[in-house]
């Protein structure tokens, strides 16, 4: 029987990467901006040069944003209706505005977290020696 040692790749801690992604910063260094514009991920970090073009965050951030906003706002709508009995037009206007505002706030942050998770777990070409 032979002793085979497999050396793990350098550990990339997930929690700091996710926090950097939430702040829309490079998951590797935390200094450079992750996004250019509202949702466009940069090809590389302007501070450390980490390649970011590997990311595959397609529709995931939108689905998670909808899930979070729906789970936060639906109980609030029910509570506001029962507690205050506002006119339906007022209720829908207020909560529609709240849903849009919360979605616009969360979407780029969740996308940053998706890219950071992919980087930390070495997914989609973020692994060492990958040139894809």
TrEMBL record:
Keywords: Membrane, Transmembrane, Transmembrane helix. It comes from Albidovulum salinarum. InterPro entries: DUF983 (IPR009325). This is DUF983 domain-containing protein. Pfam families: DUF983 (PF06170). The chain crosses the membrane at residues 62-82, 88-107.
């Amino acid at each position: 029987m032979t002793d085979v040692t497999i050396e793990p790749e350098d550990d990339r801690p997930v929690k700091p990467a996710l926090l950097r992604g939430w702040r829309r910063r490079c998951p590797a260094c935390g200094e450079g901006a992750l996004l250019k514009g509202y949702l466009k991920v940069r090809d590389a970090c302007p501070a450390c040069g980490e390649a970011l073009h590997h990311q595959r965050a397609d529709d995931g951030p939108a689905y998670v944003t909808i899930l979070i906003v729906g789970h936060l706002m639906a109980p609030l709508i029910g509570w506001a209706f029962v507690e205050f009995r506002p006119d339906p037009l007022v209720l829908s206007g207020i909560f529609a505005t709240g849903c849009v505002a919360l979605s616009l706030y969360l979407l780029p942050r969740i996308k940053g977290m998706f890219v950071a998770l992919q980087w930390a777990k070495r997914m989609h070409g973020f692994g060492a020696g990958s040139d894809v």
